[in-house]
C-alpha cells in the first residue's frame, strides 16, 4: 500500500537527487497562562468583522524553533456558556485551518470573539478574516 500524500503537499520541494521532502508547518501549542494573553493584548492588533486578532513576537531569549502559540477568548458579551463555547469552537476550527500555512513560529496569537458576529458569520468569511488579519499583522500592523 503506497503511503498517503502529506497534508501540506503544496510545501513539497524537490532536492538535487529528485527525492521529494516536505517542509513541515510550524508546531502549534495553546496559550494557557493569563500573562501570555495579557502580553499579546498589548502588542499588535488587527480587527475583522468576525473577531479581533492580537499577536506578538516572543522575545529573543526563547529558542528559534519554538512553536507558534494560539489562544482563544470569548467574554460574556458573546452570550451564555453555550454561545461562548460555540464561538470558541469556530475560532479553533478557523485557526486550525489557517495558522499552519500563515502563522509564524515564535509568535503568539489570540483570537477574541465578537458579540453576534463570531457565531453568526459564515465560516468561509471567518477564514478570509483570519488570512487578512495575519497579513496585516505581519506587514507591520497597528501597535496597540
TrEMBL record:
One of its GO terms (biological process) is tRNA 5'-leader removal. It is an enzyme of class 3 (hydrolase). Pfam families: Ribonuclease_P. The keyword Protease does not apply. The keyword ATP-binding does not apply. It catalyses: Endonucleolytic cleavage of RNA, removing 5'-extranucleotides from tRNA precursor. Its EC number is 3.1.26.5. GO terms for molecular function: 3'-tRNA processing endoribonuclease activity; ribonuclease P activity; tRNA binding. Keywords: Endonuclease, Hydrolase, Nuclease, RNA-binding, tRNA processing. InterPro entries: Ribosomal_Su5_D2-typ_SF (IPR020568), Ribsml_uS5_D2-typ_fold_subgr (IPR014721), RNase_P (IPR000100), RNase_P_CS (IPR020539). One of its GO terms (cellular component) is ribonuclease P complex. Consists of a catalytic RNA component (M1 or rnpB) and a protein subunit. RNaseP catalyzes the removal of the 5'-leader sequence from pre-tRNA to produce the mature 5'-terminus. It can also cleave other RNA substrates such as 4.5S RNA. The protein component plays an auxiliary but essential role in vivo by binding to the 5'-leader sequence and broadening the substrate specificity of the ribozyme. NCBIfam families: rnpA (TIGR00188). Belongs to the RnpA family. This is Ribonuclease P protein component. It comes from Paracoccus isoporae.
